[in-house]
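ASSEMBLY PREDICTION REQUEST
Request ID: AP-0331
Submitted by: J.K., bench scientist
Number of chains: two
Total residues: 898
Priority: normal
Notes: Please return the full assembly, not individual chains.
Input sequences:
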Amino acid sequence: MTVDSPGPGTSPRSPTGAHMSSAREGGGADGSRIVNSLCGMCATHCPIQVEVREGRAVWLQGNPNDRTMGTSLCARGAAGLTLEDDDERPRQPMIRVGARGAGQWRPVGWDEALDYVAGKLAEAIGRHGSRTVALSDRGGHFADLTRRFLRALGSPNYFDHDSSCASNAHHAARSLFGLGRAGLSYDIKETRHIVLYGRNLVESLMVKEVKDFIGALGKGARCTYIDPRVSLTACKATRYWQIRPATDYALNLAIIHEVLADGLYDRKFVARWVSGMDYLAEAVRGCTPEWQEAHTGIPAAELRAFVREIAEDAPNVIFHGGWMTARHRQSFYVSRTAYILNVLMGAIEVPGGVVLAKGPADLGRKGLNRLTAGMPEVREERVDGAGRRLPHIDPAAGLLHRLFAAMECGAPYPITAYVAYRHDPLTGAPDPEAVKRALDRLDLLVAIDVNYSETAWYSDVILPETTYLERGGIIATLPGPKPAFAIRDQALAPRFDTRPAWWIFREVLRRLGLGGRFDFDGIEDIWRHQLEGTGVTLDDLRAKGVVPLAERPVLFDREDGLRFPTPSGTIEMRSAVLDKAGLPSLAPFAAPAELDEGEFRLLFGRTAVHTHGQTMNNPLLHDMRPDNPVWMHPDRAAALGIADGDAVEISRGGTAVVTTVEVTPLIHPEAVFLFHGYGRTVPAQTRACGRGVADQRLQTGMLHTFDPAGGGSAMTETIVRVRRIEVPE
Amino acid sequence: MSTFVLVHESEDCIGCQACEVHCKTNKGLGAGPAPCKIVAVGPVAAAPAPRVRFVFLPCFHCADAACLNACPTGAVRRRDADGIVFIEASVCIGCKSCIVACPWGAAQWDPETRKAVKCDLCKDRLDAGLQPACVTKCVTGCLSLSKAAALPDDRRRRHAAALAAGIGG
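STATUS: Completed
Returned structure:
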């Protein structure tokens, strides 16, 4: 069987090459050529250029056709070359022969693997109906493909990973504006003041965003950074508040209280677009700066000074709604109040504020033809109830932990087959042992992945996907003030017996007799379908990699040009959708549980050289940061007789892990901190296996603890105990 | 002596270490050797926000280069035209004299080739009219390649502009 996508060297290209050797343009004298693509080292998918010589990628850089991107690339992006060269990834399809997770595999050919998967799917669908199949991926730019696959199957059960990431921010934005998180963009470049609630944009790094951030600071912008941990973003801020963990909602209620009390809000904008101001005033009654100080530890006077300052800088200010907000059971309200503060400051659709993301239709242009278009809608209720039983939860995203709940108890109906596509819930979701208890109920668990993820190792079948340099991907729309189309073109022939995802999905459907629902001959065929009628040609897109649909950022008219698709058409301080769900639009603040001596709240975060658990085994990135000591405040360490560098045991319930301690004032005394992604258990990843400790493993019993309004997991409510131990030898 | 200088603006640096990977992948290096390195000093607590200082340490291409003086085989060389100090790998015997001699830790051991390796300012790229890998792909643009003689004037201009804009001083 052959891969139907175009092989290297078969497509016309006219690279810009300005930052590479000019001799190499269009296939240089040394035989090199440049392919425009999208990075795959994290889900940001930055536009990149790949220089290929003699069938090997020799140079990766940002794609300067995207002016903000330029030729920049982060450490992970650069390490794509070592991912390509690494042999420690699945190299052919594998079917499990031992117990789940035992690591006993039979390497098989694609025909056998696909026949096996299709046979099991047919059996499951025959017994329980199509809805018994669920799939999860990481959402984002390419989810149109996975949604098409599920729709072709007739299952409603698509899930992205957001319940352990942005779910609370996403639903907060929806409840207020009627637009999801991605419907709003931040004009960081032009801002005068950006407020970040643990949005660690220096280390949870997206190249274009951090460039804009550093650029804005260079022009004198202010940054207020709020986090119990000193991240590197805190070190770039003009004000840092080491807030007590899980009290950020109290802080925001008090900020709103002051803004309303002092009349510092944009009356004109509020009068034009906002409903429910009475509800807002009632919700913050009594939430004075002094009241919040008792919870957050942030001095009332400092809060007052901040409010004066931000009002001075308004409307060119940003209260960041957050990204990774699966933190505690009021994180939804933290995001919601942050979004509300943007509204009060009039920072909507202004330079340096929150700008509505535009799609092609907003510019009077035709968008990409969706892959799901023309496919019959699936009427079946989702297994997690999103959109119906849970009217406030976006059915396009779902709640992954509710999928696991349904898997485990077979209600409201059985889920017996699950495909994890480039998604590793055993790393991303809380409490992997609880996730495994759900997975154990499945008749079929398939992992489609480039890496040996924890979930792949636990699956029945691994279908190895080609790396992002070895495959073409569906064309993506990048919404924003200046929307664009972007393409991932194939740069290299696959090193191993791997296949691109679109091919895998097509072949499964063909075997189920559903080939007519995904009848594309190759990726070029898909691209032509997507682009038809858009006015952008495939040649042009391939030649540039990114094609903007507007000359310059588009701002709508703030008087008459804004549209908020809430039930009332206004920005709803009191949300009709939340009312319908029986949930408060702004709940009273709930103070976090008190800790006793020896107890800590377990916090986690990111470093700029790793992507979650995805890059831990990358030869270069592993070498840069191979493990993760736990951070502890000196006062707490002293009380427990712990010194810097000591071995400690971190435990919760029956789970315990051992690591070394880094004693540092950079973490709030009530918390300990770990970088996420470590503690891999897959022996085939020889570098990363057993190095460092996994924070999710300590989140025992937390899989089904989540914010009811936003659906995000409450990971930082995990309370652990820490004690010094003697290390043998 | 080298006419070039790699300029690093710590204010604009985010310590992302991308430069280290850009350098290593361009030179085909695996785990271990890092011809350039970002060293973080801090973070340290400060009001109103903590601060960290990032120090960028490639090779300074010294006029009186300890590595070159120490090399017994003539593998460490200097280009006459621009003073770049580099290692000719075919002549390196892996004695590590340069690594011991360099006061800045610039020369690195490559366990794969069992030879020394160091920053050569990507002289092949310079010769092709390109910038060093670290400069080309720096995330924030905090790295740049300058001529040593021009640097003071660049700094003066920037300082003057900042004064005029009221954000320096």
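REVIEWER COMMENTS: The beta strands of chain B are 4-8, 37-44, 51-57, 76-78, 85-87, 108-110, 115-117, 143-147.
SIGN-OFF: pending second reviewer
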